[in-house]
Amino acid sequence: MASPKKKLQGLVAATITPMTEHGEINFSVIGQYVDYLVKEQGVKNIFVNGTTGEGLSLSISERRRVAEEWVTKGRNKLDQVVIHVGALSLKESQELAQHAAEIGADGIAVIAPFFLKPWNKDVLINFLKEVAAAAPALPFYYYHIPALTGVKIRAEEVLDGIQEKIPTFQGLKFSDTDLLDFAQCVDQNRQRQFAFLFGVDEQLLSALVMGATGAVGSFVFRDSSTLWSN
């Protein structure tokens, strides 16, 4: 079973994808971005090509190059680089997952496909399982963001028995305002040591009370030690 060097927790920066004025990716500043996060913000875990990074608006080749640059520039500086590899095409998502493993990423995350949507939990789990299998050595995270995907399957339902289907499953990025659903995710999986990463910055304090172990977001915190005591 895949296991990260240490549990993904605390603040995880949802990185933007820097662009030039001509709409091309500005790879040259990613090294500076890494140094800013580490030295100025004290953040050493990042989430690449997600919603903030506009990953689904990039081509597959662009997503691969962005992932490569973050992993390369973050080596020996960042603790964990998690790459979002979700896509409408299963094959493209598998390709991105395999690529993440090849370049040395520390984990992958996947959203639900959102055009021809999964209509129940089993269909969604089967999609996630196929993607996870493409990178069997990497920790796998489900990225729950129903406001954008339109997939209204509750995260608590998805997590029920998920590790039996996806042995590499390590946690949940929960980007929804349904705090009852989030609380049930935490309460029903306390013994499993999952990472419960909250993704709605405005509700983070409430999520902490409910048991969030981390946050993936874009707010700036000058001192994260006041939020995480362990």
From TrEMBL:
Pathway: Amino-sugar metabolism; N-acetylneuraminate degradation. It is found in: Cytoplasm. One of its GO terms (molecular function) is lyase activity. Its EC number is 4.1.3.3. Coiled coil: none annotated. Keywords: Carbohydrate metabolism, Cytoplasm, Lyase, Schiff base. The keyword ATP-binding does not apply. It catalyses: aceneuramate = aldehydo-N-acetyl-D-mannosamine + pyruvate. It comes from the Eukaryota. It is an enzyme of class 4 (lyase). Belongs to the DapA family. NanA subfamily. Homotetramer. This is N-acetylneuraminate lyase. It comes from Equus przewalskii (Przewalski's horse).
